[in-house]
Specification:
Elements: E1 3-9, E2 13-20, E3 25-32, E4 44-45, H1 47-65, E5 70-75, E6 81-84, E7 89-90, E8 94-95, H2 103-111, H3 115-122, H4 131-141, H5 143-151, E9 154-157, H6 159-167, E10 174-176, H7 177-180, E11 186-187, E12 192-193, H8 195-201, E13 210-212, E14 219-220, E15 226-232, H9 233-240, E16 249-253, E17 257-263, E18 274-281, E19 284-293, H10 298-307, H11 312-319, E20 329-331, E21 349-351, H12 359-385, E22 392-395, H13 402-412, E23 416-418, H14 424-434, E24 448-450, H15 458-472
Length: about 475
């Protein structure tokens, strides 16, 4: 029986699933990760711990089921790993996608007028989210970086590249087009890393990997298993939902959220979104619009901690004891605001409290906030493409919560399709890998549908908009 081992390397944990040719998940494994916040606005992880977590989940599955016929990788994006090629050791912690340490440098580049040229080449507005500024920061602040660059020993890449390097024992140094398109150093018009973009940020492309289509044969492990697909996790989720044409949008409910919708051609957003490459295959390049929310489902864990509630699941139970938020709004700008607002100065804000406010109202306001942020991005997408998006396909850990999914359908006033499996990103990468092994890829299992109620979301949306204005002020 043909099997793909799909790795889903995320921010809070690393998962692996063993998938057969029908798309059935045969086995699962997971390992948790921790994030360090050494300074306000900073977020980083140990790259060595990331690799160890991948080794752990792979060993658990291969010990029980043997070596797979192929490996697929879906990974957290925009996190930068920098290492010494001679030792394969990281030279510093990996700045995460959430890290805002380059906020001041990003603002200075925008003030200097560089944003239009960067957007034209990459589809991405200058922002601390992306690795270009992080690589420049490493080159200017980590003493070993410049020396290693001069010696030709410096290697830098997103998490897919780091995993590929380790899986192949340093024999393969590559990335796929979906991850490359998120670096802000990759010209999506030419599908190449750009010296002009690097010069803007003060970075260098000589230490970057070879960009390849997402369905490439990237290399082989020491055990002979080929790596047959690599994709950013959000792109893999879009593929895993079976979305191949424009008209619907997927939302991943994780630490942050990513909304992505396919576009017929390359699109430059005018409403605070990002143009990106969804994937490249032997059939060509698929383009997409994306909106990244910095703090999404993580808001529930944050509020649970503030209220002394056990976890996000218990917070959901508490939220359901009240019919609404009682006029309370929570804007979880705990690391600034992402799409479509891109406001690094915004801080987390709770508004509308009174003597009647209870912990249940704060809990409800938290789940409202997750849904309102999704709705803001979807509205911006419709404005950019000048067409309606008829349904939302949901995945990620928090999407397993039926209360949240129904609340989302009510706020959007359109159907929400809840993925039948949480590991839709891993399944998407596996489906891409299976294109090497069988003529017809598997189709995803039928989702659960949540239809909107007749309740008018206008008052709730107005409350949220008012809170946003207060937060941004």
């Amino acid at each position: 029986m043909t099997q793909i081992l799909a790795i889903d390397q995320g921010t809070t944990n690393t998962k692996a699933v063993l998938v057969d040719a029908s798309g059935t998940v045969l086995a699962r494994a997971s390992a948790s990760l921790t994030t360090q916040y050494p300074h306000p606005g900073w977020a980083e992880q140990s790259a060595s711990d990331i690799w160890s977590s991948v080794q752990h989940v792979m060993a658990e599955l291969t010990t029980a089921h043997g070596q797979p016929d192929g490996i697929a990788i879906a990974n957290q994006r925009e996190t930068l790993v920098v290492w010494d090629a001679a030792t394969s050791q990281p030279i510093c912690p990996a700045p995460l996608w959430q890290c805002r340490r380059t906020a001041a440098a990003s603002a200075a580049l925008i003030a200097a007028g560089h944003d239009p040229a960067v957007i034209a080449a990459t589809g991405l507005g200058i922002n601390p989210l992306f690795p270009a500024g992080k690589l420049a920061w490493v080159l200017h602040n980590i003493p070993a970086a410049r020396d290693l660059l001069a010696q030709g020993r410096l290697r830098a890449g997103t998490v897919d590249t780091w995993l590929l390097w380790n899986l192949t024992g340093g024999q393969a140094f590559a990335t796929d087009h979906s991850n490359a398109s998120r670096t802000q150093l990759f010209d999506t018009r030419t599908l190449t890393f750009s010296t002009e973009l690097a010069a803007i940020f003060g970075a260098d492309i000589t230490c970057l990997p070879t960009p390849m289509p997402s369905d490439s044969r990237f290399g082989e492990t020491a055990q002979g298993a080929p790596i047959l697909a690599m994709m950013g996790d959000s792109h893999a989720a879009l593929y895993g939902h079976g979305i191949r044409t424009a008209g619907t949008v997927k939302a991943t409910y994780g630490t942050g959220s990513s909304l992505m919708t396919l576009t017929p051609t390359r699109v430059a957003s005018t409403h605070g979104l990002s143009g990106t490459i969804a994937w490249t295959t032997r059939h060509g390049t698929a383009h997409a619009l994306e909106g990244n929310i910095t703090v999404s489902a993580q808001a529930a864990a944050f509020m649970a901690g503030l209220l002394g509630v056990k976890d996000a699941a218990a917070l959901s139970d508490l939220a359901q004891t009240v019919p609404d938020s009682g006029g309370v709004a929570f804007v979880p700008a705990l690391a600034g605001l992402g799409a479509p607002w891109w406001d690094d100065a915004a801080k987390g804000t709770i508004t509308g409290m009174s003597h009647a406010t209870t912990p249940a109202h704060l809990a409800r306001a938290t789940f409202d906030a997750i849904c309102h942020q999704i709705a803001d991005v979807l509205t911006a997408m419709e404005a950019d493409i000048a067409a309606p998006l008829t349904t939302l396909s949901a995945d990620g850990g928090a999407s397993a919560n039926p209360f949240l999914m129904q609340l989302q359908a009510d706020i959007l006033q359109r159907p929400v399709l809840q993925s039948a499996v949480q590991e839709v990103g891993a399944l998407g990468a596996a489906a891409m890998a299976f294109t090497h092994l069988q003529p017809t890829p598997f189709t995803p299992a039928a989702p659960r549908r949540f239809d909107p109620s007749a309740q008018d979301p206008t008052p709730a949306r107005a409350l949220w908009s008012h809170a946003l204005r207060q937060t941004r002020a």
